[in-house]
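Q: Please design a sequence for this.
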């Protein structure tokens, strides 16, 4: 018999073991996930014969001024797949999220097959991104630490607002894989660089000029930026799907949502 429940204190090592069996991850990155996100992490497990055979996690965020969550880390032991366990576990997790008052569930499928899987659970392709190339420019480099909440609030209502703990966790998490963090009073960005070129995969900033001058100060001359399809900096760019969304608690459906930071 399979039991669906919330994860419990003292289970971290078992959950990390499951994570590492299911994902091609460094152990240090997996440990960061469990150590840095509390109390904004809600974990759920499927248990059979006292063994955790599947788990999924919801991370608190805000969308359109309403409580929401990002669903990630959906993992089932290989020998227990194709039994409908993850579908049932996600249903259990979403029921609990609705009781907490969440209005939206968002996620980023890792492949085409998972887009079809989540569609069967009621998720739609309402999340998108744009990518464009820019040239960095010289200018004043302002120091100081960014006010992450203030920088995020400069974006549209369809921009997923993360709590500061999660953004700081993401900095460490992606750092495990060689990503760099750019931080000053007007810019926060995560990027990978090769000589004077960079791939900026997450950024919040006062203006594109601030981002360009800040990257220039880091030795970057050209960069590709991924961001919200509603951002005027991407005018003329063709949006690409990047994530799915499911309304909860009778909330209205919305499109063109930008998730930003993503995990499997």
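A: Design:
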């Amino acid at each position: 018999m399979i039991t669906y429940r919330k994860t419990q204190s003292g289970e971290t090592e078992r959950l990390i073991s499951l994570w590492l069996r299911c994902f091609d991850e460094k152990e240090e990155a997996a440990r960061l996930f469990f150590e840095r996100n509390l109390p904004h992490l809600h974990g759920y497990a499927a248990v059979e014969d006292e063994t955790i055979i599947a788990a999924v996690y919801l991370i608190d965020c805000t969308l359109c001024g309403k409580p929401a969550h990002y669903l990630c880390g959906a993992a089932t032991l290989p020998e227990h797949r194709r039994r409908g366990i993850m579908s049932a576990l996600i249903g259990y997790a979403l029921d609990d999220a609705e009781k907490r008052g969440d209005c939206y569930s968002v996620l980023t499928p890792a492949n085409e097959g998972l887009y079809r899987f989540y569609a069967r659970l009621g998720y739609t392709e309402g999340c998108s991104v744009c990518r464009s190339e820019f040239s960095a420019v010289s200018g004043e480099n302002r120091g100081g630490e960014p006010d992450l909440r203030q920088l995020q609030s400069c974006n549209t209502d369809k921009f997923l607002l993360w709590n500061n703990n999660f953004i700081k966790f993401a900095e460490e998490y992606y750092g495990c894989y060689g990503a760099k963090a750019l931080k000053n009073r007007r810019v926060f960005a995560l990027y990978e660089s090769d000589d004077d070129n960079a791939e900026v995969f997450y950024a919040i900033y006062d203006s594109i000029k601030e981002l360009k001058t800040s990257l220039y100060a880091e030795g970057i001359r050209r960069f590709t930026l991924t961001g919200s399809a509603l951002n005027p900096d991407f005018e003329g760019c063709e949006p690409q799907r990047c994530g799915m969304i499911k309304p909860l608690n009778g909330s209205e459906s919305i499109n063109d949502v930008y998730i930003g930071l993503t995990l499997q």
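Q: Thanks. Anything notable?
A: The longest strand covers residues 51-63. Residues 128-234 form one domain.
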